[in-house]
Amino acid sequence: MAAIMSTISSQLLVTSSSLTGDFYQAFFRKEASQKELITAGRVSVALVALVSIYLAYDRDSTILNLVSNAWAGFGAAFGPVVLISLFWKRMTRLSAILGMLSGAITVLIWIYAPLTINGMALSDWLYEIVPGFIVCSLTIITFSLLGKQDDQLVSDTFDKVQHTLEQLD
């Protein structure tokens, strides 16, 4: 039970932090006060918890399915962002946010849309992280190439870290 509670709290905190900093502050209130960000974080924790409770009430669902779906959502939303940001300096802030949203939405569609392939639900046919990861990656790459490069400081910092890593070899 302790491991479950630890995992849940970690997932809620990561989601809250991401929604507050990467979404709320980036798009709605760039100059938000610390108090306002704390309130936004608490509201996002409550919303994510309520959505999670709603999803848990599905009687046909098992703990394994719920955990599998949760990790697919996190992996598809955040995995490509982390990997691409480590190896490609052209990734922009907007493309990262759009990638996270597209990956998570793809996972939700893959799980809950009433679509079938040869009579099988999409999630029975292919684990939902795969299409989510692909859609997220393609979204990041596409919008990074189409968009304007972020602050020069991002590029300079990437080059500095790259240079430091090359010296370690």
UniProtKB/TrEMBL annotation:
Reaction(s) catalysed by this chain's protein: L-proline(in) + Na(+)(in) = L-proline(out) + Na(+)(out)
Molecular function (Gene Ontology), one example: L-proline transmembrane transporter activity
Keywords: Cell membrane, Ion transport, Membrane, Sodium, Sodium transport, Symport, Transmembrane, Transmembrane helix, Transport
Keyword Cytoplasm carried by entry: no
Pfam families found in the cross-reference section: SSF
Principal place of residence: membrane
Localization (cell): Cell membrane
Membrane topology value: Multi-pass membrane protein
GO cellular component, one term: plasma membrane
Positions of transmembrane segments: 37-57, 69-88, 95-113, 125-146
Gene Ontology biological process terms in this record: proline transport
Protein family membership: Belongs to the sodium:solute symporter (SSF) (TC 2.A.21) family.
UniProt protein name: Sodium/proline symporter
